[in-house]
# Entry
Amino acid sequence: MREVAIIGIGMTKFGELWTKSLRDIFVEAALKAIDDAGVDHIDSMYVGTMTPGLFVGQEHIGALMADYLGTAPIPSVRIESACASGGFAFRQAFIDVASGINDIVLAGGVEKMTDGADVTYALSTAADQEYECYHGITFPGLYAMIANIYFHKYGASRKHLAMIAVKNHKNGALNPNAQFQGEITIDDVLNATMVADPISVMDSSPVSDGAACVIVTTVEIAKKLGKPVVKVIGSGAATDTIALHQRKDILNLDAVKFSAERAYKMAGITPTDIGFAEVHDCFTIAELCIMEELGFCERGKAYQMVEKGETALEGRIPINPSGGLKSKGHPVGATGIAQIVEVVEQLRGNAGKRQIKNARIGLTQNMGGSGASSVVHIFKIE
Ligand code: COA
# Structure
């Protein structure tokens, strides 16, 4: 396996991008990444997107994006794993370069959710249609069940979830690409409109448009190009039951645990080596469960880390320095790549006001549905 590095990153602002189309935002992010990498060609492309057919009536995304980016006839294919589509697209690019098949590969993610589609229905297609959606449950409802059991078992409360939203909005306020760049208070979260008790609007990631791209190559080529070498030292992916009720314990996100274990094993490190992480906080409760599955603390203890400020930007292990899905936005297919863009910015020391001190090793965790798929990557600056 060849050693792999990221040499280019680019993303659009996340938010309601009504004056731009799906292809416009993808090409904008891709051109930024290519420009940042300083390469004159790419060999192949992987485009993560969840359901552009339902959101904007467009399928055949791989070919469309290569056409509009001007990279045809290179191979270009869409990768789909619900909200983890971007992270899985990156994993394909990593495998493509590591295997020696291609040298310079673009991994991108894109979603256009605000153009009038029935968003709640489109998102719910990633849950189990026959056993979950049939009964009217949606993702806020599924995560609300997880939250209620977490509260019951470990003694956490809505206030702890609110602390996560406050932290992520604080970080997002420092991120010019974030959808929401305003700070909020605990009371804003506690008094927000309830979506599915205990999940309020302010516990939820928003509906967003956006795209993000990265350029992946070998460490050898990165060095020849004189680029800062952000190495991909670990990659792990896993799946779990699609329906929540089929799990032995609905607080266990096994796909997150197994994807993380595989990534740690490849990297030859343990959770204590991770300096900071971008994780899939589609709802505030998810951030807590994911931290535990990633091994950042014992089970049932993540809310205490949040309470002590250990996950804040200046804390022991900053979580979601970008603002996370909560504040940066969650254009589902783009999220996994945008997480990687943030980690590269941090490792290069280019994250401006939200720069983490001594950022050396960062982790990304991107999840599909209520945890039926998960992909973890670990990055290190040389
Ligand atoms: N966080 C903060 N503010 C939000 C928000 C969020 N998640 N969602 C909407 N808002 C704000 C809007 O900007 C708007 O503010 P304004 O009045 O100042 O313009 C206001 O709240 C109302 O927005 P609206 O679009 O009418 O909200 P909504 O009620 O249609 O949708 C949710 C709110 C939470 C239901 C929606 O964002 C949602 O479904 N989120 C979850 C998405 C999801 O499931 N993703 C996949 C995860 S697995």
The chain has two domains: 4-119+208-224, 135-205+234-381. The pocket of coenzyme A is lined by residues 83, 120, 123, 139, 180, 195, 201-202, 204-207, 282, 330 (CB under 6 Å).
